[in-house]
Design goal:
The complex is a heterodimer of chains A (225) and B (85). With 225 residues, chain A is α/β, with parallel strands linked by helices. Chain A is 24% helix and 25% strand. Chain A has a single domain (2-224), classed as Rossmann fold (3-Layer(aba) Sandwich). In chain A, the strands form two sheets. In chain A, strands 2-1-3-4-11-10-9-6-7 form a nine-stranded mixed β-sheet, sandwiched between helices. In chain A, helix 2 (69-77) links the parallel strand 3 (44-47) and strand 4. Chain B is α+β, with helices and mostly antiparallel strands and 85 residues long. Chain B is elongated and about 50 Å long. The chains are: A alpha/beta (225), B alpha+beta (85). Chain A binds chain B through residues 57-58, 61, 65, 93-94, 99-101, 103-108, 146, 148-150, 173, and chain B through 13-18, 20-21, 41, 64-66, 68, 70-71. Chain A: Its main location: cytoplasm. Chain A: One of its GO terms (biological process) is 'de novo' IMP biosynthetic process.
Chain lengths: 225, 85
Protein backbone atom coordinates (compact mmCIF):
# COMPACT_ATOMS: atom_id res chain seq x y z
CA UNK A 1 0.00 0.00 0.00
CA UNK A 2 1.35 3.41 -0.98
CA UNK A 3 0.48 6.62 0.87
CA UNK A 4 0.90 10.20 -0.37
CA UNK A 5 1.66 13.00 2.11
CA UNK A 6 0.71 16.30 0.49
CA UNK A 7 3.10 19.17 1.21
CA UNK A 8 1.78 22.73 0.99
CA UNK A 9 3.80 25.86 1.71
CA UNK A 10 3.41 26.11 5.49
CA UNK A 11 2.64 22.44 6.19
CA UNK A 12 4.56 21.50 9.34
CA UNK A 13 3.33 18.03 10.34
CA UNK A 14 4.27 16.42 7.01
CA UNK A 15 7.46 14.74 8.23
CA UNK A 16 5.80 13.25 11.31
CA UNK A 17 3.04 11.87 9.12
CA UNK A 18 5.67 10.42 6.78
CA UNK A 19 7.33 8.80 9.80
CA UNK A 20 3.99 7.42 11.01
CA UNK A 21 3.65 5.46 7.77
CA UNK A 22 7.28 4.57 7.09
CA UNK A 23 8.33 3.54 10.60
CA UNK A 24 4.97 3.36 12.39
CA UNK A 25 3.16 0.89 10.14
CA UNK A 26 6.01 0.18 7.70
CA UNK A 27 4.22 0.93 4.44
CA UNK A 28 5.29 2.83 1.33
CA UNK A 29 4.98 6.60 1.56
CA UNK A 30 6.02 9.55 -0.55
CA UNK A 31 5.90 13.32 -0.06
CA UNK A 32 3.91 14.96 -2.87
CA UNK A 33 4.39 18.64 -3.65
CA UNK A 34 1.20 20.75 -3.90
CA UNK A 35 2.15 21.78 -7.48
CA UNK A 36 1.61 18.23 -8.79
CA UNK A 37 -1.68 17.52 -10.48
CA UNK A 38 -1.74 13.72 -10.28
CA UNK A 39 -1.84 11.08 -7.56
CA UNK A 40 -1.56 8.13 -9.94
CA UNK A 41 -0.07 5.09 -8.22
CA UNK A 42 -1.16 6.07 -4.71
CA UNK A 43 -3.69 4.16 -2.62
CA UNK A 44 -4.32 6.77 0.07
CA UNK A 45 -3.84 10.52 0.67
CA UNK A 46 -2.75 12.18 3.90
CA UNK A 47 -3.14 15.96 4.28
CA UNK A 48 -0.93 17.16 7.12
CA UNK A 49 -1.36 19.82 9.76
CA UNK A 50 0.35 23.17 9.78
CA UNK A 51 -0.42 26.64 8.50
CA UNK A 52 -0.73 26.37 4.74
CA UNK A 53 -0.23 29.83 3.21
CA UNK A 54 0.09 31.26 6.71
CA UNK A 55 -3.67 30.78 7.26
CA UNK A 56 -4.16 33.83 5.00
CA UNK A 57 -7.82 34.62 4.28
CA UNK A 58 -9.09 31.57 6.24
CA UNK A 59 -7.37 28.38 7.38
CA UNK A 60 -7.10 26.12 4.34
CA UNK A 61 -8.79 28.56 1.94
CA UNK A 62 -5.82 29.21 -0.36
CA UNK A 63 -4.60 25.59 -0.25
CA UNK A 64 -8.08 24.66 -1.47
CA UNK A 65 -7.15 26.13 -4.86
CA UNK A 66 -3.75 24.42 -5.25
CA UNK A 67 -3.00 22.33 -8.39
CA UNK A 68 -3.08 19.04 -6.41
CA UNK A 69 -6.67 19.55 -5.17
CA UNK A 70 -8.53 18.05 -8.20
CA UNK A 71 -6.39 14.89 -7.83
CA UNK A 72 -7.34 14.67 -4.12
CA UNK A 73 -11.02 15.01 -5.06
CA UNK A 74 -10.59 12.25 -7.65
CA UNK A 75 -9.10 9.92 -5.00
CA UNK A 76 -12.00 10.73 -2.66
CA UNK A 77 -14.59 10.09 -5.37
CA UNK A 78 -12.88 6.80 -6.25
CA UNK A 79 -13.45 5.65 -2.65
CA UNK A 80 -9.78 5.70 -1.65
CA UNK A 81 -8.84 6.74 1.91
CA UNK A 82 -8.29 10.49 2.34
CA UNK A 83 -7.24 11.66 5.80
CA UNK A 84 -6.89 15.31 6.73
CA UNK A 85 -5.43 16.20 10.11
CA UNK A 86 -5.74 19.66 11.69
CA UNK A 87 -5.02 22.07 8.79
CA UNK A 88 -5.78 19.04 6.58
CA UNK A 89 -9.28 18.90 8.10
CA UNK A 90 -9.70 22.63 7.48
CA UNK A 91 -8.68 22.14 3.83
CA UNK A 92 -11.14 19.23 3.39
CA UNK A 93 -14.04 21.42 4.60
CA UNK A 94 -12.89 24.29 2.37
CA UNK A 95 -12.92 22.09 -0.75
CA UNK A 96 -16.30 20.62 0.12
CA UNK A 97 -15.22 17.01 0.70
CA UNK A 98 -16.43 17.36 4.29
CA UNK A 99 -19.36 19.30 5.76
CA UNK A 100 -19.12 22.33 8.03
CA UNK A 101 -16.24 24.65 8.84
CA UNK A 102 -13.54 25.17 11.49
CA UNK A 103 -13.66 28.54 13.19
CA UNK A 104 -11.66 30.21 15.95
CA UNK A 105 -11.63 28.45 19.33
CA UNK A 106 -14.38 29.72 21.62
CA UNK A 107 -11.94 30.93 24.29
CA UNK A 108 -9.66 32.65 21.70
CA UNK A 109 -6.69 30.52 22.81
CA UNK A 110 -4.37 28.26 20.88
CA UNK A 111 -4.72 24.86 22.59
CA UNK A 112 -1.71 22.57 22.72
CA UNK A 113 -2.23 19.51 24.93
CA UNK A 114 -3.05 15.81 24.92
CA UNK A 115 -6.79 15.31 25.36
CA UNK A 116 -9.16 12.36 25.74
CA UNK A 117 -11.25 11.53 22.66
CA UNK A 118 -14.18 9.17 22.46
CA UNK A 119 -14.38 6.77 19.52
CA UNK A 120 -17.94 7.29 18.26
CA UNK A 121 -17.76 4.95 15.27
CA UNK A 122 -15.41 1.97 15.05
CA UNK A 123 -16.95 0.79 11.77
CA UNK A 124 -14.79 2.88 9.43
CA UNK A 125 -11.57 2.08 7.57
CA UNK A 126 -9.84 4.58 9.88
CA UNK A 127 -11.11 3.27 13.21
CA UNK A 128 -11.60 -0.49 12.91
CA UNK A 129 -8.67 -1.14 15.28
CA UNK A 130 -10.41 0.86 18.02
CA UNK A 131 -13.37 -0.18 20.18
CA UNK A 132 -16.72 1.59 20.00
CA UNK A 133 -16.91 4.06 22.90
CA UNK A 134 -13.22 3.67 23.76
CA UNK A 135 -11.35 6.67 25.20
CA UNK A 136 -8.07 7.43 23.46
CA UNK A 137 -5.44 10.07 24.29
CA UNK A 138 -4.45 12.20 21.28
CA UNK A 139 -2.65 15.59 21.20
CA UNK A 140 -4.37 18.68 19.82
CA UNK A 141 -2.61 21.84 18.64
CA UNK A 142 -4.91 24.40 17.09
CA UNK A 143 -6.30 27.91 17.33
CA UNK A 144 -9.13 27.35 14.87
CA UNK A 145 -10.57 23.95 15.70
CA UNK A 146 -14.07 24.99 16.68
CA UNK A 147 -16.21 22.78 14.45
CA UNK A 148 -19.35 24.48 13.17
CA UNK A 149 -22.22 23.21 11.08
CA UNK A 150 -25.93 24.08 10.96
CA UNK A 151 -28.59 21.96 12.69
CA UNK A 152 -29.68 20.26 9.48
CA UNK A 153 -26.12 19.16 8.69
CA UNK A 154 -25.59 17.98 12.28
CA UNK A 155 -28.73 15.83 12.10
CA UNK A 156 -27.46 14.30 8.85
CA UNK A 157 -23.98 13.62 10.32
CA UNK A 158 -25.60 11.87 13.29
CA UNK A 159 -28.11 9.85 11.26
CA UNK A 160 -25.36 8.58 8.97
CA UNK A 161 -22.85 7.92 11.81
CA UNK A 162 -20.33 10.32 10.28
CA UNK A 163 -19.17 11.67 13.65
CA UNK A 164 -16.14 9.49 14.36
CA UNK A 165 -14.41 11.25 17.28
CA UNK A 166 -15.67 13.63 19.95
CA UNK A 167 -13.77 15.47 22.70
CA UNK A 168 -14.67 14.17 26.15
CA UNK A 169 -14.54 17.81 27.37
CA UNK A 170 -15.60 20.96 25.54
CA UNK A 171 -12.12 22.30 24.71
CA UNK A 172 -12.85 24.66 21.80
CA UNK A 173 -16.60 25.21 21.44
CA UNK A 174 -17.18 22.61 18.71
CA UNK A 175 -20.78 21.68 17.95
CA UNK A 176 -21.56 18.50 19.97
CA UNK A 177 -17.83 18.35 20.91
CA UNK A 178 -17.04 17.07 17.41
CA UNK A 179 -13.33 16.32 16.88
CA UNK A 180 -13.51 14.32 13.64
CA UNK A 181 -16.06 13.51 10.91
CA UNK A 182 -16.19 11.52 7.69
CA UNK A 183 -17.96 12.08 4.40
CA UNK A 184 -21.10 10.10 3.64
CA UNK A 185 -19.16 7.22 2.03
CA UNK A 186 -16.80 7.20 5.06
CA UNK A 187 -13.60 7.10 3.00
CA UNK A 188 -12.70 10.73 3.82
CA UNK A 189 -11.89 11.59 7.44
CA UNK A 190 -11.05 15.00 8.85
CA UNK A 191 -9.97 15.49 12.46
CA UNK A 192 -8.36 18.28 14.46
CA UNK A 193 -6.36 16.03 16.88
CA UNK A 194 -2.99 14.63 15.73
CA UNK A 195 -2.82 10.80 15.75
CA UNK A 196 0.64 11.04 14.12
CA UNK A 197 1.91 12.62 17.35
CA UNK A 198 0.79 9.62 19.41
CA UNK A 199 2.73 6.70 17.94
CA UNK A 200 4.61 5.42 20.98
CA UNK A 201 4.34 5.49 24.77
CA UNK A 202 7.65 7.34 24.91
CA UNK A 203 5.89 10.51 23.72
CA UNK A 204 2.93 10.06 26.05
CA UNK A 205 0.51 7.95 24.03
CA UNK A 206 0.54 5.25 21.37
CA UNK A 207 -3.21 5.54 20.69
CA UNK A 208 -2.72 7.23 17.32
CA UNK A 209 -0.85 4.32 15.79
CA UNK A 210 -3.99 2.19 15.48
CA UNK A 211 -5.53 4.70 13.06
CA UNK A 212 -2.77 4.10 10.52
CA UNK A 213 -2.88 0.36 11.25
CA UNK A 214 -6.63 0.42 10.55
CA UNK A 215 -6.18 2.07 7.15
CA UNK A 216 -3.39 -0.35 6.18
CA UNK A 217 -5.24 -3.45 7.42
CA UNK A 218 -8.49 -2.57 5.65
CA UNK A 219 -6.61 -1.95 2.42
CA UNK A 220 -4.71 -5.25 2.64
CA UNK A 221 -7.90 -7.16 3.53
CA UNK A 222 -9.58 -5.75 0.42
CA UNK A 223 -6.61 -6.49 -1.82
CA UNK A 224 -6.33 -10.08 -0.54
CA UNK A 225 -10.00 -10.85 -0.99
CA UNK B 1 -11.20 50.64 -14.40
CA UNK B 2 -13.68 49.51 -11.89
CA UNK B 3 -13.05 49.11 -8.20
CA UNK B 4 -15.06 46.45 -6.39
CA UNK B 5 -15.36 46.70 -2.62
CA UNK B 6 -16.20 43.38 -0.96
CA UNK B 7 -17.24 43.03 2.68
CA UNK B 8 -17.20 39.57 4.26
CA UNK B 9 -18.79 39.05 7.66
CA UNK B 10 -19.68 36.12 9.86
CA UNK B 11 -23.28 34.97 9.79
CA UNK B 12 -25.27 36.09 12.83
CA UNK B 13 -25.33 32.53 14.20
CA UNK B 14 -21.51 32.29 14.27
CA UNK B 15 -19.60 33.07 17.42
CA UNK B 16 -16.94 35.78 16.89
CA UNK B 17 -14.38 35.45 19.70
CA UNK B 18 -12.13 38.13 18.17
CA UNK B 19 -15.05 40.55 18.11
CA UNK B 20 -15.75 39.72 21.77
CA UNK B 21 -12.13 40.40 22.74
CA UNK B 22 -12.25 43.73 20.89
CA UNK B 23 -15.52 44.62 22.63
CA UNK B 24 -13.89 43.94 26.00
CA UNK B 25 -10.91 46.15 25.10
CA UNK B 26 -13.27 48.97 24.07
CA UNK B 27 -15.06 48.67 27.40
CA UNK B 28 -11.61 48.88 29.01
CA UNK B 29 -11.12 52.20 27.19
CA UNK B 30 -14.18 53.46 29.00
CA UNK B 31 -16.72 53.26 26.15
CA UNK B 32 -19.41 51.37 28.00
CA UNK B 33 -22.08 52.28 25.41
CA UNK B 34 -20.57 49.88 22.88
CA UNK B 35 -22.69 46.73 22.92
CA UNK B 36 -21.03 44.49 20.39
CA UNK B 37 -18.26 44.41 17.79
CA UNK B 38 -18.38 41.92 14.91
CA UNK B 39 -15.15 41.59 12.99
CA UNK B 40 -15.10 41.01 9.24
CA UNK B 41 -12.89 41.34 6.19
CA UNK B 42 -12.72 44.04 3.53
CA UNK B 43 -11.30 43.58 0.03
CA UNK B 44 -10.61 46.08 -2.77
CA UNK B 45 -10.57 44.40 -6.15
CA UNK B 46 -9.45 46.41 -9.13
CA UNK B 47 -10.76 45.13 -12.47
CA UNK B 48 -9.49 46.24 -15.87
CA UNK B 49 -12.59 46.18 -18.01
CA UNK B 50 -16.12 46.37 -16.79
CA UNK B 51 -17.43 43.40 -18.75
CA UNK B 52 -20.96 42.07 -18.89
CA UNK B 53 -20.05 39.18 -16.60
CA UNK B 54 -18.38 41.30 -13.90
CA UNK B 55 -21.18 40.74 -11.39
CA UNK B 56 -21.15 36.97 -11.98
CA UNK B 57 -17.35 36.89 -11.84
CA UNK B 58 -17.26 38.73 -8.52
CA UNK B 59 -19.88 36.42 -7.05
CA UNK B 60 -17.89 33.37 -8.15
CA UNK B 61 -14.75 34.82 -6.56
CA UNK B 62 -16.66 35.50 -3.34
CA UNK B 63 -18.45 32.13 -3.22
CA UNK B 64 -15.37 30.08 -4.04
CA UNK B 65 -12.59 31.98 -2.30
CA UNK B 66 -13.20 35.21 -0.38
CA UNK B 67 -16.10 33.90 1.73
CA UNK B 68 -16.96 30.48 3.12
CA UNK B 69 -20.74 30.21 2.68
CA UNK B 70 -20.90 27.76 5.59
CA UNK B 71 -20.14 30.52 8.06
CA UNK B 72 -19.88 33.85 6.22
CA UNK B 73 -21.95 36.18 4.08
CA UNK B 74 -20.74 38.96 1.82
CA UNK B 75 -21.87 42.07 0.02
CA UNK B 76 -20.12 44.11 -2.63
CA UNK B 77 -20.31 47.45 -4.38
CA UNK B 78 -18.87 48.84 -7.58
CA UNK B 79 -17.00 52.13 -7.57
CA UNK B 80 -15.63 54.01 -10.56
CA UNK B 81 -11.99 53.98 -9.48
CA UNK B 82 -11.10 57.05 -11.62
CA UNK B 83 -13.50 59.00 -9.49
CA UNK B 84 -11.88 57.60 -6.32
CA UNK B 85 -8.45 58.82 -7.37
Amino acid sequence: MKFAVIVFPGSNCDKVLYYAIKDGVKADVEMVDFRNDSLAGFDAVLIPGGFSYGDYLRSGAIAGHAPIIPAIKEMANAGKPVLGICNGFQILTEIGLLDGALIRNKNNRFICETVPLKVENDQTIFTSEYQQGETIMIPVAHGEGNYYCDDKTLARLKANHQIVFTYEDDINGSVDNIAGITNEKKNVLGMMPHPERALEELVGSADGLRMFQSVLKNHMDRVNQ
Amino acid sequence: MTLVKVYVTYKKSILDPQGEAITNAIHGMGFQDVNEVRMGKYFEISVDESSNTLKEDIEKICDNLLANPNMETYRYEFVDSEAVQ
